[in-house]
Amino acid sequence: MIGMEKTTHRMSDSVQIDRGGEPALPSAGPHPMGMMVLLSTVTMLFAAFTAAILVRRTGMDWVQEPLPWIVWANTLVLLASSFSLEAARKSVRRERPVSVSGNWLGAATLLGILFLVGQVTGWKMFAAQGVFLHESPHGAFYYMLSAVHGLHVLGGIGALIWTYRRTLAGAYSATQSVGLVHTAIYWHFVGVVWIYLLVLLATL
Fold this sequence. Notes:
Blueprint: H1 2-14, H2 33-56, H3 70-93, H4 98-128, H5 137-168, H6 178-203
């Protein structure tokens, strides 16, 4: 009897109830070492780029180029993608049909792809302004940073597609959604990095 009580107590502790009387999405727990290493590595990479920009901008040939308008619209696209991903997590938490969370994840993925298309369009617009990689130090950093960031976005899209397939397969529930949570952590991180880069390039 004591053993059964302990087991029941553990089970009740593992599922928390939110204020709405629904199972709350559990914590992802300690993040896997791979995730921590990945985020730390990406952070150090862009920190190194930041240091390079701060040094390079002291040169006499440094001219701040006006960024194409599309980069600002593109930022809203990436934010909308993050919003869609959070809506998918909310659907999982509330145990709605997998089609609902799947639709939100599909939207997040498509918006991520649209963001990449917008980045390529931004490069073309930048070139149309007469800003080329080999002629403008500021422009060179824009091309380089947006390209490196785009590669990380591409990796995030791969994770979103994997999560989308897992969601439709019914792999996630209110008490088991670690994969979805980790994908969201990475995707939001990529979004924050882009906003940081945009502010950096627009102000230096």
